[in-house]
Amino acid sequence: MFRIDPVIRSLLVLLACLVALFAFLLGGRFFSFANLQSMAFQLPELGILAVAMMVTMMTGGINLSIITTANLAGITAAFCITRLAGADASSGAVLGITAIAFASAMVVSALVGAANGFVVAHLGVSAILATLGTTTVLEGIGVLITRGSVISGFPDAVLFIGNGALFGVPVPLVIFACCALAVGVWLDRTPWGVGVRMTGSNANATAYSGVDVRRVLMKVYILSGLLCGVAALIMIARFNSARAGYGSSYLLVTVLASVLGGVNPDGGFGKVGGLVAALMVLQVIGSGLNLLGLSPHLAIALWGGILLFVIALRLLRARRAGQ
Amino acid sequence: MPNDERLSGGTRTGFAALRGEFLLAGVILLLAAVLGVKTDGFLSWSNLFDLLNSYAFVGIMAAGLLTVLISGGIDISFTATATVAQYVVASILVRCGESMGAPFGWIAIFGAAAFTGLLLGAVNGLLVHTLRVSAMIVTIATLNVFYGILIFVTRGKWLYDFPKWFADGVNVWSFTQGGATYGLSLAICALFLVLAGTAFLLNRTTLGRKIYAMGGNPEAAKRMGFNLLGLRLFVFCYMGFLAAIGAVVQAQVMQTVAPNSIVGRELEVLAAVVLGGASLAGGGGTLLGTMLGVALIAILQNGLTLLGVSSYWHQIVIGCVILSSVSATAWNARTIARKGVGIDVPD
Questions:
Q1: Quick check: A33 and A302 in contact, CB under 8 A?
Q2: Contacts of A220 (CB under 8 A, 6+ apart)
Q3: Which residue of B has its CA nearest to A115?
Q4: In a domain, B347, yes or no
Q5: How many whole angstroms separate alpha carbon B235 and alpha carbon B255?
Q6: Of B132, B316, B326, the CB nearest to A130
Q7: What are the residue ranges spanned by the domains of chain A?
Q8: B314·A136 Cβ contact <8 A
Q9: Residue A84: exposed, middle, or buried by beta-carbon count in 10 A (0-12, 13-18, 19+)?
Q10: pLDDT tens digits, residue range B220-266?
Q11: N or C: which end of chain B has fewer CB within 10 A?
């Protein structure tokens, strides 16, 4: 039997209400191809970063360094591309250089993830403090490499990742779908995924039941880093540039999206499907208010308000179920 | 494994309990000695007063954040509270600052700021208590709500051109060196008043000890008959109040109110407090440690500038200091836990 998770169901109801509201206020404009496509281009960036945040929150941790990791990976890729590829490079050479650049971005993000994992799992530092420390260092390194300026000007092959479409579906959305699906399967269908949830529920009990908690945590933070690397590639391709400091306002929003999507901040619970539904809710609010000509800051305020509202509803439901 | 942190600090008394603070003070003294030898400007009164002036608001907010951390909570939204308070104060100043004059003006703006801070703090306290979700999540949400609404209403305009009495500030005592005047400015006086008040609250009042007790073990505090709602309301209101006071101080030093001057720096203040030995698990932390944490970051930044180190390196150095400090603390707690729980019995 196929049964929908109650968290996802309530988010889908909320989403339907919001879509109906905006359809009423905006008429056909909300469903125009241009709006749907702009939503599909905007969602993946935040989405992949939110998945990177979510996997660490599942273990009861948090990764405050996702944005700086992504920026450092983006800067690495941009640095490789602009330094190695001259204006007269052949198209084959450009492709090769792009591949090297992407690979080095992924290596950097995996290394950052491993560093976070080592400090959290092996030194026993709480995730907030560990990733707060690394984020400060990473931002410094990013600013040091770029001297605070912007690296820009990429070949078309790179820009395609951020702005192209396959059969009408934006490439970033395809990448996001692949990431979300892969992480979802890993979390729900593999022993490692079970270990992640168990670690989040009770790390000591998990260790006593024979699971190598440190290994689980290392993998979680490396995966989180790699996802930041993927997000970085989309970000630099969309902006056609890389800089330390891009997307810093996304950091707290990814926490918000994860919790809205049903991830328990104390660890143990959460589904990728819930996160995707939560991201759609946030995106619909953002795009809808934008079409209404209202400030994006009002959307940010509404995101916070909706999270508090949903938490209150869940509390009420849990109380009623308990009676 | 948050329990380890509590076991390592809670049972020691006297000098042993302040081991972390001694270490931090030693590092600061060493740093100051090196900087004093290597640079001309570091060990001068003017540099000291400049440092105090520019870091006063960080110190004030750190005192508030420490109180929340001790109670077992956390507040990420205080930067938004501070910015809201700044806009309230700035609009009063721009609208009717000239006509108010100095003494009444100060009372009015501090009163308005304090009211704003207490109000937003109460919202946080109520939500954290009733929603039963970690304070971090609730305050991330309220940060977005407060800040989003503020920028929507004010359109993120910069405010400046304040009346003369606000630009002059308050100088309790001053001296002139090399053509510039230094002294006990508004920022420095506010910092010392806040420190004295917070030290008294945490160490000499029942309320302060209750805050430590609640952070150490909320369930036990509840069974003792403590009013948890009241205590939570108090700590979040106190945080909001100090954020607002710090905001006025910062606005007075900068003479401009901008939407992005404080928001985004919440983790920086948190880093300073944690560097000072406060535990995120609650129940632990001292005001002395917090101030040493703020001082270390201030002196590092100031010293690197005076040494002529490119500012690109500053963050890397500070980040490494934070990382090594939290790693050392965690490693220590782990080894103590491995040896078994030790309880020092005072003679």
A1: no
A2: A55, A56, A58, A59, A61, A117, A196
A3: B323
A4: no
A5: 29
A6: B326
A7: 6-318
A8: no
A9: middle
A10: 988 988 989 999 999 999 999 999 999 999 998 888 888 888 887 88
A11: C
Q: Output the six-digit token pair for A282.
A: 């946030």
Question: DSSP label at B182?
Answer: E
B76 and A CB contact within 8 Å: yes
C-alpha–C-alpha distance, residues A248 and A285, integer Å = 20
Comparing A177-181, A232-236, B175-179, the range with the smallest average pLDDT is B175-179
| Reported ipTM | 0.84
A279, A254, A277, A253: which is closest to B144 by C-alpha?
A253
**CATH code for position B185:** 1.10.3470
Distances (CA, A) of A150 to A79, A81, A107, A139, B44: 10, 14, 22, 14, 38
Q: Within 10 Å of residue A125's Cβ, how many Cβ atoms?
A: 26
CB B41 within 8 A of CB B306: yes
User: How many domains does the structure of chain B reveal?
Assistant: 1
Could you give the CA distance from residue A199 to residue A214 in angstroms, rounded to a whole number?
10
Let me know: does B79 contact B143? Beta carbons within 8 Å. yes
Residue A232 in contact with residue A81, Cβ under 8 Å? no
Q: Are residues B137 and A265 in contact, defined by beta-carbon separation less than 8 angstroms?
A: yes
CA distance linking residue B140 with residue A279, whole number of Å: 17
Which residues from chain B sit within 8 angstroms of residue A134, using beta carbons? 319, 323
CATH class for the region spanning A6-318: mainly alpha
Between CA B234 and CA B236, with CA B235 as vertex, the angle to 5 degrees is 95
Cβ neighbors of A22 (< 8 A, separation 6 or more) are A30, A284, A288, A291
Length of chain B measured in residues: 347
Inter-residue contact A66 to A249 (CB < 8 Å): no
Confidence at B88, pLDDT banded by 50, 70, 90? very high
**Chain B partners within 8 Å of A311 (Cβ):** 131, 133, 137-138
Q: How far apart are CA B213 and CA B201, in angstroms?
A: 14
Contacts of B280 (CB under 8 A, 6+ apart): A126, A128, A129, B2, B69, B74, B274
Structural domain boundaries, residue B180: 3-339
B111's CB contacts (< 8 A; 6+ apart) are none
- Which of the residues A68, A122, A126 would you substitute to probe the B interface, choosing the one with the greatest number of B C-beta atoms within 10 Å? A126
For residues B149 and A315, the answer to whether their CB atoms sit within 8 Å is no
Does B345 reach chain A within 8 Å, measured CB to CB? Answer: no
Domain assignment present for B280: yes
- What are the strands, taking DSSP E only, across B89-218? 174-177, 180-183
Establish if B277 belongs to a structural domain. Answer: yes
Is B248 within 8 Å of B37 (Cβ atoms)? no
Residue A46 in contact with partner chain B when CB distance is under 8 A: no
Domain contains B265: yes
User: What is the DSSP secondary-structure string of A228-262?
Assistant: HHHHHHHHHHHHTEE-TTTTTTHHHHHHHHHHHTT
Dist CA B78 CA B222 (whole Å):
27
Residue % of chain A over a pLDDT of 70: 98
Tallying the residues shown for chain A, one arrives at 323
pLDDT of the residue at A55: 94
Q: Nearest to residue B211, comparing CAs of B317, B69, B335?
A: B69
- Closest CB to A129: pick one of B76, B274, B320: B274
